[in-house]
Amino acid sequence: MAIHSLLIVKKYCSHSMSAIFISREKEKKIFLYLTLTFCCSMIFHSIAFFLLITRTPKNQIVVRNYLIAIQIVIAVNDVHLDVGLHGIPLFPAIAGYGNGILLRLGVSVKTGLVIIFIISTHVGVTTILCIAHRHQTILPTGNHFKFKK
């Protein structure tokens, strides 16, 4: 069973790799879609920044700072993906190519993916720190889950 499914996957991958072609018109449509998505994302980032800065209660300043840090890192990630790499997926194959500013300047795709990994790790760590802070502020004094200072 496993060998049979492996042969099917090999056959499918070799077939799909040779059959993929994206015309210039379709590429322009994909670029337009990605650009519109990026513009909407930046508008939503701006709204989130505005609301975090102006509408956060005074007793939530530390949590607000964590959320602003997360928002900044996610906005940087959007700029990196949509402007720096500007990737085009080649479905159904697990492949793609990029036409972004960083790639035109000679930065390798591997370096771009490492930057994405670092940014994603930063988002995860900041989220965990925010949750840990909220958890510690909710716990009553003397609770055995409370961190020692």
Notes on the structure:
- This protein has one domain (about 30-140).
- It is about 70% helix and about 5% strand.
- The protein contains 5 helices and 2 strands; from the N terminus they run αααββαα.
- The protein has helices at about 1-20, 25-55, 60-85, 100-105, 110-140, and strands spanning about 85-90, 95-100.
- The chain has a two-stranded antiparallel sheet with strand order 1-2.
- A hairpin with a 6-residue loop joins strand 1 and strand 2 (about 95-100).
- The radius of gyration is 22 Å and the shape is elongated.
- The N and C termini lie far apart (about 55 Å).
Helix amount: over 70%
Mean pLDDT: 86
What is the count of structural domains? 1
Helices, by number, come to 5
User: Any idea what the shape is?
Assistant: elongated
CA radius of gyration: 22 Å
How does the helix and strand content classify structurally? mainly alpha
SSE order in H/E notation?
Answer: HHHEEHH
The order of strands across the largest sheet is 1-2
How far apart are the first and last residues' alpha carbons, in Å?
Answer: 57 Å
* Total beta strand runs: 2
Task: Show unreliable segments.
Answer: 1-12
The description of the largest β-sheet is:
2 strands, antiparallel
Strand content: under 5%
